[in-house]
Design brief:
201 residues; alpha+beta; 4-stranded antiparallel beta sheet; 3 helices; 28% helix
Length: 201
């Protein structure tokens, strides 16, 4: 019998939640699962004194709706200064996490070129802070190039149009399909999408 990958991912996500809860209990935190925050839900919250950490867990690929839920929670925590937000990436045992050194810089530069103009139409000022949580969904090494498809989270510091230019942190999911030269420079950008729909909510 072959077990569905979706079912495997669900069990590994639950195992990761349990392990994270145990780790933080051992550190003296109180932990609560499935915490409702406004119209959102944190899968786990750990608290010790004034240190509050909101966790979300990612196993397998997310669809757009699920990714937006996570980013909405992350932005809510950042804006309300309610604590810290941590995204835990869960890999099943047979999965190997692929890392390409220098890819973060490549995605950062693409975001500067592609995402920043769109964001500056919405706010008076914006700066790209960092790229995090890069996931490679597909990669292939060819004779003259490396093909890569994946996703990442882009973090920005923004100032809103109305009122004062107060700094806010905004995070958006970006997906990409590109090729790199063997010295890890961008060769061809086939596709780049960054979902800013949560910004206007």
């Amino acid at each position: 019998m072959k077990i569905s990958k979706n079912i495997i991912n669900q069990f590994w996500e639950q195992a990761a939640i349990e392990q994270t809860a145990r780790n933080y209990l051992d550190k003296g935190y109180s932990v609560t699962k499935q915490v409702r925050i406004a119209d959102m839900q944190a899968l786990l919250v750990a608290q010790k004194n004034n240190d509050v950490i909101f966790f979300d867990f990612k196993s397998g690929e997310w669809d757009k709706a699920r990714a937006n839920q996570a980013l909405k929670l992350r932005n809510y925590v950042a804006h309300k200064k309610a604590g810290k937000f941590k995204l835990v990436l869960v890999n099943t045992p047979e999965e190997k996490e692929i890392q390409i050194e220098g890819l973060e810089d490549v995605i950062y530069n693409i975001c500067l070129e592609k995402a920043m103009p769109e964001l500056r139409h919405k706010v008076t000022q914006a700066t790209l802070d960092k790229i995090s949580d890069i996931e490679i969904h597909h990669s292939q090494v060819r004779e003259k190039e490396i093909e890569v498809k994946g996703s990442a989270i882009a973090h920005f510091q923004t100032g809103f149009i109305n009122g004062e230019n107060l700094p806010y942190q905004e995070s958006f999911l970006a997906t990409f399909y590109l090729t790199l030269s063997h010295d890890l420079n961008l060769k061809t950008l086939y596709e780049f999408n960054i979902d800013m729909s949560s910004f206007d909510e």
